[in-house]
């Protein structure tokens, strides 16, 4: 917690400052509970499912316009209906009936690129709830333009996406 030693109207005495710090900490704990702080610390941890985290071999590499996914490591993607958001590459990937599709994750409405859900072969940008099918076509606005689709190919255990 940031220590407050000055206000806009002047300096606090040391005892007053300590009282406010203690009262403030107690109030925050009472409002949010210890889980608030626990959950904050876990979001700072590297996400092992995201590429380019040092020391993590998550099976995803991004080089220029090419994304490679090791399906042996990202084995969850082998199931119909599974999907991934790769933020560093601004890419959505889904397994649709055993094949793979890839779309830009940059929503055509207002360019949100990280707030996606996927269900029943529909992507939803939760920024304003636009929906897209697996070809990127708009199913529901406010977006009016489709998502760009990327090409995919599989060789052995490697899924390649070319933007
Ligand atoms: S940015 Fe996606 S719906 Fe608005």
TrEMBL record:
Q: Which SUPFAM superfamilies match?
A: ISP domain
Q: Does the keyword Iron apply?
A: yes
Give the superkingdom in one word. Answer: Bacteria
Keywords, A to Z? 2Fe-2S, Disulfide bond, Iron, Iron-sulfur, Metal-binding
Name the InterPro entries on file: Rieske_2Fe-2S, Rieske_2Fe-2S_sf, Rieske_Fe-S_prot, Rieske_Fe-S_prot_C
The chain positions of domain Rieske read 92-161
Q: Which is a Pfam family this sequence falls into?
A: Rieske
Does this UniProt record's set of keywords contain Metal-binding?
yes
Cofactors that this protein relies on: [2Fe-2S] cluster
In Swiss-Prot or TrEMBL terms, this protein is called Rieske 2Fe-2S domain-containing protein
Q: Which organism is it from?
A: Algoriphagus sediminis
């Amino acid at each position: 917690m940031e220590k407050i030693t000055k206000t806009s109207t002047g300096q606090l005495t040391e005892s007053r400052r300590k009282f406010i710090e203690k009262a403030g900490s107690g109030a925050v704990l009472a409002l949010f509970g210890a889980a608030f702080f626990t959950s904050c610390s876990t979001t700072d941890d590297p996400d092992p499912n995201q590429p380019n985290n040092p020391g993590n071999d998550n099976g995803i590499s991004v080089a220029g316009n090419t994304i490679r996914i090791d399906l042996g490591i990202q084995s969850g993607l082998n199931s119909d209906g599974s999907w991934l958001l790769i933020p560093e590459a601004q890419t959505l990937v889904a397994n649709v009936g055993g094949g793979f599709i890839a779309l830009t994750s940059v929503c055509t409405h207002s360019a949100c690129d990280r707030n996606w859900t996927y269900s029943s072969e529909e992507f939803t940008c939760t920024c304003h709830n636009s929906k897209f099918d697996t070809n990127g076509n708009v199913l529901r606005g406010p977006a009016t333009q489709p998502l760009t689709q990327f090409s995919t190919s599989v060789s052995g255990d490697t899924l390649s996406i070319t933007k």
